[in-house]
Amino acid sequence: MRTTVKLIRGQDNITVEADLTELQTKHANDYTSSWKEQLRLFAQEDKFWDWEFKLQFVINRQPNREGYAIEYEDETQGLMIIETQLHGSRLVSGKRLVYVDGIASAPWNREIIQRPPKYKGVGTALLSFARTRSLELGFEGRVGLHSLPGVEKFYDNQGMVDLGEDEDYDDLVYFEYGVWRSFG
């Protein structure tokens, strides 16, 4: 599976075409070897995530989990893991959704670490793909996730509904997209 997504090169705002593909060992290794130290140095909230473990023991062993990566010029730009069968919508009772279990952009794509970021739009492209998977699965574009505190504004800016802190999930704020309607 390979899909083309558009990213914006930060230095000149030129649109580039990147590949969104299934998460592979190479992507998880890139996180460990190229991302982790920068995430630690800049005290990023996802600095302790273990994408190698997520791939080997979660995605590869649980049929309801899927992992994806965005690559550009053979460099991993973003990672995402979703759950496709067990989560229900909080906006529409009784309806299922795609749950984003983890989403991360490479350190050089984060404004807090690098200005301008090397590539913009990685998180947006991953969330858009989660909505596409939701449509493919018959969930009408519904997507939910718990946000790390430092990126809540990002999800607000994506048009997700802020449903408040979830005491059952370390008081992280829960966000959800409702039904995706296309107008046109």
Compact summary:
This protein has helices at about 25-40, 50-60, 120-135, 150-155, and strands spanning about 1-10, 15-20, 65-70, 75-85, 100-105, 120, 145, 160-165, 170-175. By secondary structure, the chain is of the alpha+beta class.
Keywords:
184 residues, alpha+beta, Aminopeptidase, 9-stranded mixed β-sheet
General description of the model:
The mean pLDDT is 95. Helix 1 (25-41) packs antiparallel against helix 2. The chain has helices at 25-41, 51-59, 122-136, 152-157, and strands at 2-9, 15-22, 65-72, 75-83, 98-105, 119-120, 143-147, 161-166, 172-177. It is built from four helices and nine strands; from the N terminus they run ββααββββαβαββ. A hairpin with a 5-residue loop joins strand 1 and strand 2 (15-22). It is globular and about 45 Å long. It has a nine-stranded mixed beta sheet with strand order 6-1-2-3-4-5-7-9-8, with helices on both faces. The chain has one domain: Gcn5-related N-acetyltransferase (GNAT) (Aminopeptidase). It is of the alpha+beta class.
CATH H-level homologous superfamily name = Gcn5-related N-acetyltransferase (GNAT)
**How much is the average pLDDT?**
95
CATH topology: Aminopeptidase
Stretches with pLDDT under 50, minimum 5 residues: none
Q: Termini, distance in Å?
A: 28 Å
* Biggest beta sheet summary: 9 strands, mixed
Helix content: 25-40%
